[in-house]
Amino acid sequence: MIMMFSRTSLAASVALAAMATGIAYAATQGTVGSTSTGTAKINASKGNSVQISALADVTFPPSLTTPAPISQTACVFSSTGNYTIQATSSYPSGGTFRMNDGGSAGTDFVNYSVGWYNVTAGGIPVTLSSGTASGTITGANTTSTSCGGGTNSRFEITVDNTTFTAANSSTFTDTLTLLVAPI
């Protein structure tokens, strides 16, 4: 038995098969009558999201000797619970974080390191390298972008003794940019 289809009946058959499988390609239009009903499929996609907050500036007290490390807490929200962090210095040298003296020449630098903790106390830091994303970090808040007004992580700044001791007497600054991404 040979079956013949016109273009119209073939198109209608394909459309019906697509609807039967749950795939809708277009809205349906109403017909003329005392009432008319049409349909439109509504789609919305939400990707993973992340936010870092509760940050504050870090200021070391004036010192003649290398200052002790300073920790600063933060809040990390990730819709997945996991994230990576990338810390970037404004004055990097390779993967080294550096503060600049800001003088007219701006050629005197003090190096520092950054350790990231997924807890606010204790724990083992992930040592960061300027401009390089960390591996997967767990423990992000998954329900509150503000960690319920608290914090759930911290970073620690440690000034390098060698470059601090060799530096001229000055004020050294850097802007540390922290970029988090959901995993």
CATH topology: Immunoglobulin-like
Assign a percent range to the helix content: 10-25%
CATH superfamily, please?
A: CFA/I fimbrial subunit E, pilin domain
What is the CATH architecture annotation?
Answer: Sandwich
List the main descriptive attributes of the protein structure presented here:
29% strand; six-stranded antiparallel β-sheet; mainly beta; 9 strands; 183 residues; three-stranded antiparallel β-sheet; elongated; Immunoglobulin-like; 2 helices; disordered N terminus
Please provide a written account of the structure:
The protein is mainly beta. It has one domain (50-182): CFA/I fimbrial subunit E, pilin domain (Immunoglobulin-like), CATH 2.60.40.2040. Helix content is 11%, strand content 29%. It has two helices and nine strands. It has helices at 7-20, 161-166; strands at 50-53, 70-78, 82-89, 97-100, 109-117, 126-128, 137-138, 153-159, 176-182. Strands 1, 2, 4, 5, 6 and 8 form a six-stranded antiparallel sheet that branches. It is elongated and about 90 Å long. The chain starts with 6 loop residues before the first helix and ends with a strand. Residues 1-18 have low confidence and may be disordered.
Mind sketching the topology for me?
Elements (H helix, E strand, L loop, with lengths): L6 H14 L29 E4 L16 E9 L3 E8 L7 E4 L8 E9 L8 E3 L8 E2 L14 E7 L1 H6 L9 E7 L1
Antiparallel strand pairs: 1-2, 2-8, 3-7, 3-9, 4-5, 5-6, 5-8
